Automatic annotation (TrEMBL):
It holds the Pfam family ThiN. Residues 20-48 form the HTH cro/C1-type domain. GO terms for molecular function: DNA binding. InterPro entries: Aldolase_II/adducin_N_sf, Cro/C1-type_HTH, Lambda_DNA-bd_dom_sf, ThiN. CDD domains: HTH_XRE. This is Helix-turn-helix domain-containing protein.
């Protein structure tokens, strides 16, 4: 695991310090004077100025870095810039380069798992896309752990399989919903989860969740289980509002919308099946853990 801050500490700062030490020495300052300005030892200045410190070529060749070093070197050497002002200037550049820029790109190179985000990972943005999707995956994994560890959950899995899904806060399509590729199946009485959660892999349960959200539901997660009158009754006894919708539909948005129009606070949607259509119950909740716990309470 490689943190963006490590890129700054281990790649950016040594490179910039060496460039600045070199710049100040070229302007006639002694090693002692350079050490005082940079707050480092004279031996460190010697290593920086003599190229004994490994430098990152991408940072070394960046025009913004080179221009800043030249400007700081001039200001510090001539006394027109204080050490604090120089520090602030460097900090500003670091933040800029961390925000979908050079540091983010180096981070992606050194941690290939970030590939595909195109340097779009802003380490200081708590609502950034990567952070958001990873939070959803993490929540979904916790929900799946509940499913796997719940004795008897397999008895709730319908013939078509179950899926546990969770969406991003601003989801507007299936690609914004994470689920289990291949669904959750009953294998010899055990709920079996075939692979890690991914986005865009659950068309059916995701469609129900998205339709519910479009019609006013605040749910961020959904789980489908088999239908029986006893299951619906147990959910109602637990305080959940249940709403029935038509099983044979051409437009999922329309039938889910009609059900929620009658009962806007419903946290359970279900249909009783039809010709060639298995009856299903859909549990809705704030996150994957919440709906997994709803199911666990049924077994």
């Amino acid at each position: 695991m490689r943190f963006a801050e490590e890129i700054v500490v281990e790649e950016f700062l040594p490179t910039v310090r060496s460039m600045l030490a070199e710049e100040l020495r070229d302007r006639g300052l002694t090693q002692s004077e350079v050490a005082d300005l940079l707050g480092i030892s004279q031996s460190a200045v010697s290593k920086y100025a003599n190229g004994e410190v490994e430098r990152n070529e991408r940072i070394l060749g960046d025009d913004r870095v080179r221009n800043l070093v030249a400007r700081l070197g001039e200001g510090l050497a001539e006394g027109t810039m204080s050490r604090v002002e120089a520090l602030v200037e460097i900090e500003i550049l670091i933040r800029r380069l961390e925000n979908r820029d050079l540091v983010a790109e180096i981070h992606e190179t050194e941690m290939p798992e970030l590939a595909g985000h195109g340097g779009d990972f802003n380490v200081h943005d708590p609502e950034g896309d990567l952070r958001t999707t990873e939070r959803v995956r993490s929540s979904l994994r916790r929900g799946l752990t509940i499913v796997e560890s719940s004795s008897g959950f397999a008895s709730l899995i319908p013939a078509v399989g179950s899926n546990l899904c969770e969406c991003t806060p601003d989801a507007d399509g299936i690609d914004d919903v994470a689920g289990v590729p291949g669904r959750i199946f009953d294998v010899k009485g055990q709920a079996t989860i075939p692979s890690e959660p991914e986005f865009g892999v659950s068309e059916h349960v995701a469609s129900i969740l998205l339709a519910a959200r479009r019609h006013g539901s605040d749910a961020r997660a959904a789980l489908n289980v088999r239908y029986s009158p006893d299951i619906v009754a147990a959910l109602e006894e637990s305080g959940h509002a249940t709403a029935e919708f038509e099983a044979e539909y051409d437009d999922v948005d329309a039938v889910v919308g009609a059900a929620l129009a009658e009962l806007p606070d419903a946290t359970v949607l279900y249909h009783t099946g039809g010709y060639g259509v298995e009856p299903i119950v859909y549990l809705l909740g704030d996150d994957a853990e919440a709906v997994a716990e709803m199911a666990r309470d049924l077994v």
